[in-house]
């Protein structure tokens, strides 16, 4: 069994059924992945009042609070995590611990997203905040490699779709991607990205009522500069939000996308065909989707989740935890649930890990390397 940390630390571990198949994570929020014990320590340093001061009880509070069936209520839990992530030291620590937890969960590549604009209360600039997370991710990667393991970790920067900083964040992403162009991690792995580098842009936050089209100028800037975009869509809003993400945002991946087939159950409509035939990756997060009510059209269990239909229908499905803390989950835990509750096979899981490797925002040579590791382990 892969050893991960418990609720007292950060995430759940799987039951060992998958074996040693490595994993790739494409949709993970940094401010949703803190260890409860770290939150307690950081909150004490800044006199931030928490609903619980015992790490185990705090972990349960986050999970219980997130089990509301509403994305809006789910998002309120982040008030406590962002509150303790307002200094360079705190951001770096959280980022470093995140990488260590991912490695313990069996990941070999992770793309962690977060919104720098939410971490300026302590006086940091956007650049200083991004530098701090980059430093923490790099430290975590170095620690994993020093112990004989392998992981790569990069950043996706989010703008909040209900606020007005998308242009500024888009320019920050463009500048960072340009600066990192051609820069790879030292070592023998071809195309491996520099640890902590910025690779893409996202829009996060309340989805319904705040379409991607409201941010056309920022999204056009990214397209002009050939910077990858992945947008939250089809989670708190219907299939039309996915269309908007593709048309207005030129999104190469869709965050969640689980409501794609809500009004097109046979996947025969033009939007479904476009997403499937163009191999646009869907970053699906089953446990989170249950908590936010994103799959209420289908049911209230992992067995009911449309990820199985999407996978069987040939869509490029990937699997991620979304927010490890709030959902008390991990990539391996999500995979274990699909095995035990939705009738998936180990080959199904290997297939979606290959999807994730091919959809990662990294050079093709590194995509190939990741895919080879998955294929070797699942042979």
TrEMBL record:
InterPro entries noted in UniProt: A_deaminase_dom, Ado/ade_deaminase, Metal_Hydrolase
Pfam family, one: A_deaminase
Record-listed E.C. numbers: 3.5.4.4
Keywords of this entry: Hydrolase, Metal-binding, Zinc
Domain Adenosine deaminase per the UniProt entry, residue ranges: 22-376
One example GO MF annotation: hydrolase activity
Statement: the UniProt record of this protein carries the keyword Electron transport: no
Taxonomic superkingdom: Bacteria
Cofactor(s) listed: Zn(2+)
Homology family: Belongs to the metallo-dependent hydrolases superfamily. Adenosine and AMP deaminases family.
NCBIfam families found in the cross-reference section: PRK09358.1-2
Full protein name: adenosine deaminase
């Amino acid at each position: 069994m892969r050893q991960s940390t418990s609720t007292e630390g950060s995430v759940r571990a799987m039951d060992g059924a998958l074996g040693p198949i490595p994993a790739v994570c494409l949709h993970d929020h940094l401010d949703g992945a803190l260890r409860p014990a770290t939150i307690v320590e950081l909150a004490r340093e800044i006199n931030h009042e928490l609903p619980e001061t015992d790490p185990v009880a705090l972990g349960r509070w986050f999970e219980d609070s997130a089990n509301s069936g509403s994305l809006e209520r789910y998002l309120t839990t982040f008030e406590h995590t962002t509150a303790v992530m307002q200094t360079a030291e705190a951001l770096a620590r959280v980022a470093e611990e995140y990488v260590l937890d991912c490695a313990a969960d069996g990941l070999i590549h992770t793309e962690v997203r977060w919104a720098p604009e939410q971490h300026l209360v302590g006086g940091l600039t956007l650049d200083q905040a991004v530098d701090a997370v980059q430093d923490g991710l790099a430290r975590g990667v170095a620690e994993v490699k020093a112990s004989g393991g392998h992981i790569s970790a990069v950043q996706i920067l989010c703008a909040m779709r209900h606020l007005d900083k998308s242009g500024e964040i888009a320019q920050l992403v463009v500048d960072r991607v340009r600066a990192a162009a051609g820069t790879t991690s030292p070592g023998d792995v071809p195309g491996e990205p520099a640890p902590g580098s910025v690779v893409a842009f996202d829009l996060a936050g309340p989805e319904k009522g705040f379409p991607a089209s409201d941010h056309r100028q920022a999204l056009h800037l990214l397209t002009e500069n050939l910077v990858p975009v992945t947008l939250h869509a089809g989670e708190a809003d219907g299939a039309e939000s996915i269309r908007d993400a593709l048309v207005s945002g030129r999104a190469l991946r869709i965050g969640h996308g689980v409501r794609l087939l809500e009004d097109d159950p046979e996947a025969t409509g033009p939007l479904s065909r476009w997403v499937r035939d163009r191999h646009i990756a869907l970053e699906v997060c089953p446990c989170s989707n249950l908590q936010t009510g994103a799959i209420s059209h289908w049911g209230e269990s992992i067995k009911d989740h449309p990820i199985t239909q999407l996978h069987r229908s040939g869509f490029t499905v990937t699997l991620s935890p979304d927010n490890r803390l709030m959902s008390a989950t991990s990539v391996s835990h999500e995979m274990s649930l699909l095995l035990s509750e939705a009738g998936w096979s180990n080959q199904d899981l290997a297939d979606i890990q290959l999807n994730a490797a091919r959809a990662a925002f990294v050079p093709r040579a590194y995509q190939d390397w990741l895919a080879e590791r998955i294929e070797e382990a699942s042979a």
